[in-house]
Fold this protein.
Amino acid sequence: MSDQLKVFVTREIPAAGLDKVTSGSDAEVWREPLPPSREVLLQKVQGCHGLLTLLTEKVDAELFDAAGPQLKVVSNFAVGYNNIDIEEATRRGIKVGNTPNVLTDATADMAMALMLAAGRRIVEGQDYIRDKKWKTWEPLGHIGADLWERTVGIVGMGRIGSAFARRCHGGWNMRVLYHNTSPNEQVEKELGAQLVDMDTLLAESDFVSVHANMNPDTVGMFNAEAFKKMKSTAVFVNTSRGPLVDQKALYDALKNGEIFAAGLDVTDPEPIPLDDPLLTLSNCVIAPHIASGTLSSRNAMAEIAADNLLQGIAGQPLRCWVNQGS
């Protein structure tokens, strides 16, 4: 291993990628269940030529300084890269990679699962049984939302939003509204989807699903004002990023009956604090950020992350290169 370049992997990833990394570099892998502390991270990156990181690691000028001038690449095991100072990495000539295009179906499926679980009160029903409250079939018990031929509003009509739209339209003959920075002609032609302003989407949708990128324009976009514009029967789903939602406003909307239910795969912060009031609500289903949690998706992510890392330390173009040409 002495002739191989040094890398640090901030968490154990699937063997489909990790085996590549350990055989192709002088790799140290952080195998603890929790991420390394900031102090430990700054120590571990010293002298590294490459880093394989997760969204939990803040990759900034301080970290680059700690690593040293030989650092060539940061490979993020994620589609997103909000944890990385891309401008600073580019200024220093450090390549940044991510793992796009392999989470589309898994994330769209997760959005569907949350929509069904929240809308049909599945988790609430399970808790009802486990709390030994189920005595008989109840004609007025656990009545949820209808899906057939209802209207779904999709905020962010990229790959994942489009995959989710196809599921809604093909599975339940839903009318599809969407709000996006630009028209998506393919889903309009294929599904009859309509590009509308945000107020129209919120007012007319029975289900609202968020698939937008996180940026200064989208952070906090689902606030008290937005929830007040939604139907009282609406179900809200977020599989994008937690900071897009004002969680206090969401709690109030759910508690006060301004919307019917919510399903979240992402929160702010993560993990959600155990004393967060959202956890007290029966009409809020929260999953621990598992949209990409399928065997094929996680293996594909690991392979791309490994390829990005190894190509980067070898001075080659990355398979998925965030700051290419910057």
